[in-house]
Amino acid sequence: VCMIDLLGRTGHLDEAEGLIMNMPFGHFAVTWMSLLGACRIHGDVERGACAAEHILELEPKNAAPFVLL
After folding, report:
1. CB atoms within 10 A of CB 30
2. pLDDT in tens, 10-52
3. Cα–Cα distance, 47 to 38 (Å, whole number)
4. DSSP string of 5-67, one letter each residue
């Protein structure tokens, strides 16, 4: 999660998303949340919507994606 946050904050959203997609131990909502926050900062609406969908699939009762979008 720290690496995803670091990549996201520096604007390397492609690399951050690639790291999430290639995680050998599965996807967690917190990793997608980190990417969603970075997308919000850098204005990547399309990737942010995709991250929000992943969060809602993993945690359907989590309202945070709606707040960040």
Report:
1. 13
2. 999 999 999 999 998 878 999 999 999 999 999 999 999 999 9
3. 10
4. HHHHHTT-HHHHHHHHHT-TT---HHHHHHHHHHHHHHT-HHHHHHHHHHHHHH-TT--HHHH
∠ CA 33-36-40 to the nearest 5 degrees?
140
Can you give the pTM of this predicted structure? 0.89
| Element (DSSP H or E) covering residue 2 | helix 2-9
Asked if residue 29 lies in contact with residue 37, where contact means CB atoms within 8 angstroms, the answer is no
The CA distances from residue 7 to 4, 58, 59, 65, in Å, are 5, 22, 24, 20
What does the pLDDT read at residue 20?
A: 95
11 is written with which tokens?
A: 């604007």
